[in-house]
């Protein structure tokens, strides 16, 4: 046993890593280890010496076990120290700069418009992009035989389900939910879809923001005043607006709204196509049929509605010549608008 102890200590001094220590444990304390096999000699020991022999073997085993455990702790501490030295972090060094995205130019326009109308007491509603034929057309005074449906060539999913062609279904749902009781003041931003050939000015997917006000004694003057305030807030206080007669199935009367060109001041330029005016949105007084279908008494309640395209506004403001740039996720294009919000640009000068 003394020879075994001396041999272990010699090998232990030379052990430099965890593997060598584990090999020593197997060599001396394993099932076929040197110390374990000593117990096989128990049968050859006289009975009066067996107790002392067993105690000596156990003492040898415990001594070797303690040294191995101590050696493993020292090795692990040494490895940890070396690892900490190699992985030391200098906290005074500047951090790595990670690329940070920015707000999409189209979203920046939408947020600016929402800020204005929320300040006027409007609520923001978002509806379903997959809509029923009833809310997309019939509840808006467009029955199945109405020729105006041809103006909005649609993506149908089934005979009664389609991708919405405008955000007006949100207005129809809000009107129905009101159960004939006003007032209602909402704007409805969101994506819409129409069968259209994509080119520089058209897209099969684009964005709309529509507004609706329903209450007692609402007139065309309220509509004009609201749009004049909004457009001056967006394009500048020196802008003028004009209303031209138009036609929409869900409003009567209907108007197209133009704003004097913010680039040339109405003198004529390439932005306004030398006319001095830029067409911005469509609007009108809510058709009595739409109010009646939603449960409102059209002799008591009236309202106005308007709809605009943030895409067109974004193209005008930023000089974007192709609407497809707004939807193709080209980082070279989007990174140009990265710091718009950080520079403190508000809706007064989007």
UniProtKB/TrEMBL annotation:
UniProt-listed Enzyme Commission number(s): 6.1.1.20
GO MF: ATP binding; catalytic activity, acting on a protein; magnesium ion binding; phenylalanine-tRNA ligase activity; transferase activity; tRNA binding
Membrane-spanning parts: none
Annotated compartments: Cytoplasm
Gene Ontology terms: cellular component: cytoplasm
InterPro entries, per the entry: aa-tRNA-synth_II, aa-tRNA-synth_II/BPL/LPL, Phe-tRNA-synth_IIc_asu, Phe-tRNA_ligase_II_N, Phe_tRNA_ligase_alpha1_bac, Phenylalanyl-tRNA_Synthase, tRNA-bd_arm
Keywords assigned: Aminoacyl-tRNA synthetase, ATP-binding, Cytoplasm, Ligase, Magnesium, Metal-binding, Nucleotide-binding, Protein biosynthesis
Annotated signal peptide: none
Residues annotated to bind Mg(2+): 252
Principal place of residence: cytoplasm
Catalytic activity: tRNA(Phe) + L-phenylalanine + ATP = L-phenylalanyl-tRNA(Phe) + AMP + diphosphate + H(+)
Residue ranges of domain Aminoacyl-transfer RNA synthetases class-II family profile in the record: 59-336
A GO biological-process term: phenylalanyl-tRNA aminoacylation
Listed Pfam families: Phe_tRNA-synt_N, tRNA-synt_2d
Cofactor note: Binds 2 magnesium ions per tetramer.
Enzyme superclass (EC): ligase
CDD domains tied to this protein: PheRS_alpha_core (cd00496)
Cofactor(s) recorded in Swiss-Prot or TrEMBL: Mg(2+)
Coiled-coil region: none
UniProt record similarity statement: Belongs to the class-II aminoacyl-tRNA synthetase family. Phe-tRNA synthetase alpha subunit type 1 subfamily.
NCBIfam families noted in UniProt: pheS
Subunit structure: Tetramer of two alpha and two beta subunits.
UniProt xrefs under PANTHER family: PHENYLALANINE--TRNA LIGASE, MITOCHONDRIAL, PHENYLALANYL-TRNA SYNTHETASE
Name of this protein: Phenylalanine--tRNA ligase alpha subunit
Organism in which the protein naturally occurs: Nosocomiicoccus massiliensis
Gene that this sequence comes from: pheS
């Amino acid at each position: 046993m003394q020879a075994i102890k001396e041999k272990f200590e010699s090998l232990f001094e030379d052990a430099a890593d965890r593997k060598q220590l584990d090999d020593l444990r197997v060599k001396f304390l394993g099932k076929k280890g040197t110390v374990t096999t000593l117990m096989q000699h128990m049968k050859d020991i006289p009975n009066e010496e067996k107790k002392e022999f067993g105690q000596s073997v156990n003492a040898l085993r415990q001594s070797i076990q303690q040294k191995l455990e101590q050696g493993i702790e020292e090795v692990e501490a040494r490895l940890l120290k070396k690892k900490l030295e190699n992985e030391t972090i200098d906290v005074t060094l500047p951090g790595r700069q990670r690329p940070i995205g920015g707000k999409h130019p189209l979203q920046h326009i939408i947020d600016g418009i929402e800020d204005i109308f929320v300040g006027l007491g409007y609520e923001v509603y978002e509806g379903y992009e997959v809509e029923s034929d009833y809310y997309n057309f019939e509840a808006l005074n467009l029955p199945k035989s109405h020729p105006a449906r041809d103006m909005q060539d649609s993506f149908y999913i089934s005979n009664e389900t389609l991708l919405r062609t405008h955000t007006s279904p949100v207005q129809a749902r809000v009107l129905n939910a009101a159960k004939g009781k006003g007032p209602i003041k909402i704007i409805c931003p969101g994506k819409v879809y129409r069968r259209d050939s994509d080119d520089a000015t058209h897209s099969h997917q684009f964005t709309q923001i529509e507004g609706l006000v329903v209450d007692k004694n609402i007139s065309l003057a309220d509509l004009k005043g609201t749009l004049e305030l909004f457009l001056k807030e967006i394009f500048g206080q020196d802008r003028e607006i004009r209303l031209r007669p138009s036609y929409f199935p869900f409003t009567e009367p209907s108007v197209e709204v133009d704003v004097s060109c913010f680039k040339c001041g109405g003198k004529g330029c390439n932005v306004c196509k030398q006319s001095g005016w830029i067409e911005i949105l469509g609007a009108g007084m809510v058709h009595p049929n739409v109010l009646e279908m939603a449960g409102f008494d059209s002799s008591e309640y009236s309202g106005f509605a308007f709809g605009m395209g943030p895409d067109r506004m974004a193209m005008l403001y930023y000089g974007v010549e192709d609407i497809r740039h707004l939807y193709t996720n080209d980082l070279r294009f989007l990174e140009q608008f990265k710091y718009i919000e950080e520079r403190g640009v508000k809706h007064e000068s989007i």
